[in-house]
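ingest -> fold -> write
write: protein_1
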Amino acid sequence: MTALPMLPGETRLLSGQEAQWAFGAALALALPAGSVLFLEGELGAGKTTLTQGLVAALGFTEPVTSPTYALMNAYPTPAGRVLHVDAYRTRHPAELYEMDLEELIAGSRLSVIEWGEALYADYPDAPIVRLLHVDGEPEVRRVERLR
């Protein structure tokens, strides 16, 4: 494992989709097997775009889409399964646990959870990364590592 590409409290700007993919790839390669990563941010800020970079870096070549309606997507990669969770539509974390969230995370190389604030306490070592729009710069995203 290498150090994550950002320290807690650090902020940087990502210009364009390729930069988001590259940042996602850097995260994927730095996070150890079994890691959970929380992604936060405004609608359309690039959480799924960043996840596309993560999953591609681990060798998955098919499309990666938002799990907004399915709640969970699993991507088999040569490095192991990547679990992509969107907790936006859940009313309570128990809904995800009833879908075997713990077991799915335990069996995954990496688990990416969008809108997972209600799960922070359950995974206290998981990094939290927030993506935000930048006013007047439609292709630029501000990325912040919260923990």
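write: protein_2
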Amino acid sequence: MAWISLIFAGLFEMFGVAMMNRLNQKRNWQSVVLLILGFGASFLFLSYAMKFLPMGTAYAIWTGIGASGGALIGMLFYGESKDWKRVVCIAMVLGSAIGLKLIS
């Protein structure tokens, strides 16, 4: 259950990052509320996961999902570069997160 919670924390982190971009485009109260809800849920799920998983592993995987997911959202929805070097770096971040899961 802790790993599922950690995955949800990473997904809500991605959502929060996307809402940051939305807030920069549309300055309204809905964007602010969605941003706060996204990051709030992310921290809630991360806090639960860290009760059962080592802090370093949980934090590394959470940030890996958030960072690589944010980059993917930028590439898919906001026209950011899809250069192969960028994709390789995202794959390395995800591979590191998977490696931490396998050895912990």
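write: annotation protein_2
Helices lie at 2-25, 29-49, 55-77, 84-103.
The radius of gyration is 14 Å.
pipeline exit 0
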